[in-house]
Amino acid sequence: MHRGGIPRYVRRMPMLDGELKQTPVVLRPDQIDRYWVEIERGLRTMKDMPNRDWTPEQVREELKLGDSHVLCVTNRWDGFVIYRLLSPATLWISIAYGEKGNDIAYYWSTIIDIAKKCGIEKIAFGSARTGWGRRARQYGFSPTQIVYELELK
Predict the structure, then answer these.
(1) Which label site among 49, 133, 136, 149 has the fewest CB atoms less than 10 Å from its CB?
(2) What's the pLDDT tens digit per position in 31-58?
(3) What is the distance between the alpha carbons of residues 57 and 89, in angstroms, rounded to a whole number?
(4) DSSP 3-state percent helix, strand, coil across the chain (nearest 5)
(5) What strands lie across the sheet with 25-26, from one edge to the other?
(6) What are phi and psi of 96, to 5 degrees?
(7) Would residue 4 count as lying in a domain?
(8) Mind listing the pLDDT tens digit for each residue in 63-72?
(9) What's this model's pTM, rounded to 2 decimal places?
């Protein structure tokens, strides 16, 4: 994992410089505290998602360390994506947030455009929600791995 600072291949993304007026942009790790209230508000709306394996506090730590990044799709904070780069060519979407009526379909083309401009060759994500299997195909995704878990108590 990368710690402190921004890897070279992330720097190709449109980074926020100053006020959040034009979007889409990626926040730098040192800007997370400034916008945390808005990010956390979106994350908290997902608190009841089944099989959620993160807390807002964990997300904040990853963002501040530069292990994950937040792409602000609009300056109204009604859509953002938390992602990490698995390699210079593979973007892993950890969390996609969109307010009601403004889900990922609304800003999917923006994510694709930015990824292509930055040399990303592959976008990946995982979900325990069964409905995403059908929906992912609509966006052009194909399954590459299925994971089964057994919780030991």
Answers:
(1) 149
(2) 999 999 989 988 998 877 766 788 999 9
(3) 28
(4) 30, 20, 50
(5) 25-26, 69-72, 79-87, 90-98, 122-125
(6) -125, 125
(7) no
(8) 999 999 988 8
(9) 0.76
In a domain, 61, yes or no: yes
Residues written for the chain: 153
Q: Cα–Cα distances in Å, from 6 out to 23, 85, 91? A: 19, 11, 15
Residues near 53 by Cβ (< 8 Å), separated by ≥ 6? none
DSSP bridge pairs for 95: 82
Q: Which residues contact 39 (CB under 8 A, 6 or more apart)?
A: 32, 56, 59, 60, 63, 70, 77, 80
Looking at the domain assignment, is residue 20 inside a domain?
no
Residue 92 within any structural domain of the chain: yes
Q: Which amino acid type is present at position 12?
A: R
CA quadruple 47, 105, 72, 36: dihedral, nearest 10: -10
Report the C-alpha gap between 95 and 54 in whole angstroms: 10
Whole-angstrom distance, CA of residue 45 vs CA of residue 137: 25
